[in-house]
Specification:
Distance between the termini: 60 Å
Strand content: 15-25%
Bound molecules: zinc ion
Number of strands: 4
Radius of gyration: 20 Å
Helix content: 10-25%
């Protein structure tokens, strides 16, 4: 194999990988539900810790690669679980990333995540 052929194959593979990544990003953007931050989002959303019963603390969580779920009777997500298998609304591709509403119990270290939607960060000086 000449160096030119190897270079061509390498370049083609890199372009194919970029196209695949772009397709995944577009797919996620199309499916994501991002809403503006408003205080109304929090109304009626108080939860007791399912373990100790204490009121959970409300806040935000950002999941990075997204939440990749597998049921208990299946194997846990492995090394090759990729961004495309993230649960709906658990990953934000926005420049100012949107986050998930979440509740936590600091003593039990349990986290409850609402992934029915992502919430865009509020503008300067505004809080939700
Ligand atoms: Zn608790």
């Amino acid at each position: 194999m000449t160096a030119n052929v190897a270079l061509w194959i390498g370049t083609s593979a890199a372009i194919a990988a970029l196209l695949a990544l772009w397709a995944i990003v577009r797919h996620l953007q199309g499916k994501a539900c991002e809403v503006p931050a408003t205080s109304a989002l929090w109304s009626g959303r108080s939860y007791a810790c399912p373990d100790c019963g204490t009121a959970m603390e409300a806040g935000w969580v950002m999941l990075g690669k997204g939440a990749i779920w597998s049921s208990r009777d299946k194997r846990p997500p492995g090394t090759f679980a990729h961004i495309g298998s993230a649960m709906p609304n658990t990953i934000s591709m926005s420049l100012r990333p949107a986050a998930n509403m979440a509740w936590r119990c600091p003593s039990c270290r349990l986290l409850l995540i609402d992934h029915s939607k992502l919430v865009k960060p509020a503008g300067r000086g505004r809080t939700a």
